[in-house]
Amino acid sequence: MSATNERNKKVSSILDSIYANAINDDYLVDESKYSNSLNKLFTTSAWGFREILLVVIVGMKLDSSFKASVGLYDCNPRAIYEGPIKEFLINKEIPHRKSGPLNVAKATVGLDMTWATQRRPSNVAEEVVNLVNLLESDKTIIDDVSVSLIRKLIGESKRIEALSVNEEPSSDPLFLYKLCYELTTKVPDSGNTPQKIAAYLLKNFHLAMNTGVIVTGEEDRASVTSTTSKKPGDVNEESIDGIIYKVYEITVKPFDIARIRDSYDCIHIYNDNNGNNVNEVIVICREEDCPKEMTKSNLSLYMGNYNYQDIVYYYWNIFEWMSDTLQRMTPLARKNFYSDLNNYISDINTAEIVKIKWQELHQ
Prior knowledge:
Layout: H1 3-22, H2 35-40, H3 48-62, H4 68-71, H5 77-91, H6 100-105, H7 113-117, H8 122-137, H9 142-161, H10 173-186, H11 192-209, E1 214-216, H12 226-229, E2 235-238, E3 244-250, H13 257-274, E4 280-285, E5 295-296, E6 302-308, E7 311-317, H14 318-328, H15 331-346, H16 352-361
Parallel strand pairs: 3-4, 4-7
Antiparallel strand pairs: 1-2, 2-3, 5-6, 6-7
Helix pairs in contact: 1-5, 1-9, 3-5, 3-8, 3-9, 10-14, 10-16, 11-14, 11-15
């Protein structure tokens, strides 16, 4: 067995042991020294703070000399989080981020007050430092803190699960449009909501029509850049062998000249790497997101276009497009779209504000 596999096996064993104690009602812990600090980690949507504490605990159990306050990366946090820790969180259906702890801990040597002041919210980061200092000063408390942390994570999982909606899928395009409009305008979730809606609409439109077109982008979050995903847009229509027919950018933020330049660079990198000739992009956005410099149309769905070097950007009204696409879909496609959207919103990692709004829309 390789050293990495052996380490991962140890991490999994550590987590399984903590979890077994956490779900054992007879396992009692004294939280008096740390309950306030630990509770603070669950008052923010920045889950990385509670995830970095879990990484620190695992690191200390792997190596008794490990000190996150001065050498966080001594425990290989990326490898153990994105490997066995994330696998554990997925298996136990505990909400988590793809690289949450690494995002809050990047560009730091140790978890100290200097690090905390540079993080947002800094008062939560300070409590992470307080917990790390407590663990390093009194190692007998590690088991108690680890059990308390896992119990709170389990509690979060149960609380979020209660926000799920179980309704028969609807095929009513007017009702579905209302859902799309409310979600997009009220809980865009940094662009994730409209991107998922657009991807699911296109995917189910093509599946029901048996067009053979493959829609990509539904698995990505809005924070994933085109360069990172190795695709030229947020959502793409492709042939079965990967030839891109159409590129879509989905946004409820200004898609101005700066965004156009970024998009242009990504597309040319993609074209050069794949021998393609993508030269058109459909930007699905609100009217206020269009660049002032674009050539305007006198239509409602198609709002205008902007030519940037050898690429044309066509701007479509996001709400008109949603309504139009829903009405052109078959009833079965609409039901499948609803199911996809409901499954996404029910996912443990989808933002709570989206879940709450979804629940409200079904009351």
